[in-house]
């Protein structure tokens, strides 16, 4: 079954296409041949701005989870031989505090439909029965519908392709490394306010992300995210690039607003 032929899907993609084309025409006097790429960046910024309340809720949730770390450790010790009881006790504790262990996933889940639409708009030559003029737009001579992997396997890669994707992938990997370092013990996100904030609760890492297991996950994610940027269309790669840098900057700001260490009880 062709999902694009389904009326609701076709309507969403057509609306996204027309919005991007309209924004491209609006930016054309300023951005010239890069107007469509600029439109993708503007859309990304608009989406992330709309998700600021979600980011604030996430930061509050992380502070709560950091405060609960000693109690969670006690529950793990108490129910170490009964996983079902541990799960019930853990969820009860989160419910009591009005938070969830999955709150950190909200920004990713909220953006997933947008990323999917941007991806679809820049890979299909026809949308809702009409041609896709967005595929004719470029960034520094590289079509927005091209991917690095597709260009290499198809033999169409040029020096411009390698240069543009090289910068994009390196920038995505760089923010992943910055994030990993900043949440490590002593990093900017682990303790942004410095010693004046006070010590972390006994037995708890300064940040839930600073635990050894999460450090390994973050180390892998920086490479996974960069790998994704190699296989998606350039337009989707731009969306990814802007959103990971926004996420990093937003976390720096919100961690100072909602410090993990010394959180009020």
List keywords for this structure.
two-stranded antiparallel ribbon, mainly alpha, elongated, single chain, 3% strand
Task: Characterise the protein shown here.
- The chain is mostly helical and 265 residues long.
- It contains nine helices and four strands; from the N terminus they run αααααββββαααα.
- The strands form two sheets. It has a two-stranded antiparallel ribbon. A two-stranded antiparallel ribbon has the order 3-4.
- α8 runs antiparallel to α9.
- It is elongated.
- The N and C termini lie far apart (54 Å).
Low-confidence stretches: 191-210
**Measured on Cα atoms, how large is the radius of gyration?**
22 Å
Distance between the termini: 54 Å
Main sheet attributes: strand count, strand direction, barrel closure = 2 strands, antiparallel
In short:
By secondary structure, this protein is mainly α.
How is the secondary structure organized here?
Layout: H1 7-31, H2 35-50, H3 52-78, H4 83-97, H5 106-121, E1 126-127, E2 130-131, E3 138-139, E4 142-143, H6 148-154, H7 159-183, H8 212-231, H9 234-257
Antiparallel strand pairs: 1-2, 3-4
């Amino acid at each position: 079954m062709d999902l694009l032929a389904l009326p609701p899907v076709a309507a969403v993609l057509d609306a996204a296409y027309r919005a991007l084309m309209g924004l491209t025409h609006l930016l054309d006097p300023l951005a010239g041949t890069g107007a469509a790429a600029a439109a993708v960046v503007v859309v990304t910024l608009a989406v992330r701005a709309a998700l600021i309340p979600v980011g604030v809720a996430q930061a509050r949730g992380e502070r709560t989870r950091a405060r609960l770390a000693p109690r969670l450790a006690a529950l793990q010790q108490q129910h170490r031989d009964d996983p079902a009881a541990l799960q019930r006790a853990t969820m009860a504790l989160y419910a009591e505090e009005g938070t969830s262990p999955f709150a950190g996933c909200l920004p990713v889940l909220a953006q997933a439909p947008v990323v999917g639409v941007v991806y679809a708009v820049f890979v299909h030559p026809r949308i809702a029965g009409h041609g896709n003029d967005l595929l004719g737009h470029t960034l520094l001579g590289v079509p927005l519908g091209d991917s690095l992997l597709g260009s290499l396997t198809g033999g169409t890669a040029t020096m411009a392709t390698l240069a543009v994707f090289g910068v994009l992938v390196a920038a995505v990997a760089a923010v992943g490394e910055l994030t990993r370092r900043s949440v490590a013990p002593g990093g900017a996100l682990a303790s942004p306010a410095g010693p004046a904030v006070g010590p972390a609760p006994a037995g708890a890492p300064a940040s839930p992300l600073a635990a050894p297991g999460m450090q390994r996950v973050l180390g892998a994610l920086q490479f996974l995210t960069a790998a994704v940027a190699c296989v998606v269309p350039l337009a989707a790669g731009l969306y990814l690039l802007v959103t990971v840098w926004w996420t990093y900057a937003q976390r720096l700001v919100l961690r100072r607003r909602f410090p993990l260490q010394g959180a009020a009880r």
